[in-house]
Write a structure and sequence with these properties.
Shape of chain A: globular
CATH superfamily of chain A: HUPs
Strand content of chain A: 5-15%
Radius of gyration of chain A: 17 Å
Helix content of chain A: 25-40%
CATH topology of chain A: Rossmann fold
Strand order of the largest sheet of chain A: 3-2-1-4-5
Structural class of chain A: alpha/beta
Oligomer: homodimer
CATH class of chain A: Alpha Beta
Number of helices of chain A: 7
Distance between the termini of chain A: 51 Å
CATH architecture of chain A: 3-Layer(aba) Sandwich
Number of domains of chain A: 1
Amino acid sequence: MPTAPAVVLLSGGLDSTTALAICQRDGLEACAMTFRYGQRHQHEVNAALAIAQRFGVTRRVVVDIDLRTFGGSALTSDLAVPKHASDEEIGPEIPITYVPARNTIFLSFALAWAETLGARDIYLGVNALDYSGYPDCRPEYIAAFQQMADLATKAGVEGQGVRIHAPLIHWTKAQIIAEGSRLGVDYGLTTSCYDPSPEGLACGACDSCLLRKRGFRDSGVADPTRYQLRS
Amino acid sequence: MPTAPAVVLLSGGLDSTTALAICQRDGLEACAMTFRYGQRHQHEVNAALAIAQRFGVTRRVVVDIDLRTFGGSALTSDLAVPKHASDEEIGPEIPITYVPARNTIFLSFALAWAETLGARDIYLGVNALDYSGYPDCRPEYIAAFQQMADLATKAGVEGQGVRIHAPLIHWTKAQIIAEGSRLGVDYGLTTSCYDPSPEGLACGACDSCLLRKRGFRDSGVADPTRYQLRS
């Protein structure tokens, strides 16, 4: 029996790469969807493609969308990315790196591709604990998207809807890293930094770097990340 | 007091143009969002821009997305658009002109733009009666999208969510035309045909043309559409 396809949202980061490994562990053919969305750093897309290749993914798409049209985020505009001396300084408020409706846009495209492929599953690497305060990383958001998706598509209406999997949603960064390492993920291929050097070295001081560092520290797995600053 | 902005999804068709007129009647500043999504006909985008101009819309965006990446619809690929001799032949099944997850993708972008503009309202021209069998035109779909949107965004989480308006959802095409005409809409600017001639003349035989023709007939409003065939 041929393996059933599943769409994986693959950003090139630690979380989505772990979601890809879990999709394959579940016995599905992972089909990778990556977005080029006016990020300041092409290196994220390159990382995603290198990861897809390492995992033997044969069906992959890079979707060009330009969130810069709308402005509103330090990740896609010229606003400065906030830096901190340690992860203790990261507050509970929604940060300016928030991109309006980003996961909603990404999941909508994943839904379209899933329907076209005949895929019944979508995997994404959101998590609610180390989530940097983004509203569209919470379990209640994913559940609401699922409900909407069941009503949105021909497949859903005909009773063969698409299931959204967010396997990391309740895990800490340390648990994600531990599980991914168990599944053989090479985290040296992944990139998390919001503000890397032109050579792709991580800044070590943005929210994302600090959460990643803490994750490796807490998991006991050696951190393969190449940082500009050593703290 | 300055007028509050609202996002209107404007395709250049009869329904979305009526939604734009209703948005302005509601006293809001209509900001028009149009998609160039691998349609075979640039004339839809041109119609949308001409309509926006006629309505005095100053903020408008054209978003490029390529649904052809995914295939799966006669509207975006080389599949033949089905033709009928009369609207009696249109069945209840979902037609092959269905584009996977289209309204979900469009509403997701509208949500992102609304949040960036500080808009509290989105208008779209879906309707459930003459809807050609698309699942994402039904009231239960719109309600589910609303619920998801309330959880997806910073604005929603902070209690100032975006309201999705689908004012035409329970109207017949004839009611839409009658109301739009009362509001001064010039339907000669709008385009509905799935398969127009290179000069932009309507085929008169696709589902969309047949529903539009019947709408004018039933409303008693003169049909300003230029058809290739006279039936």
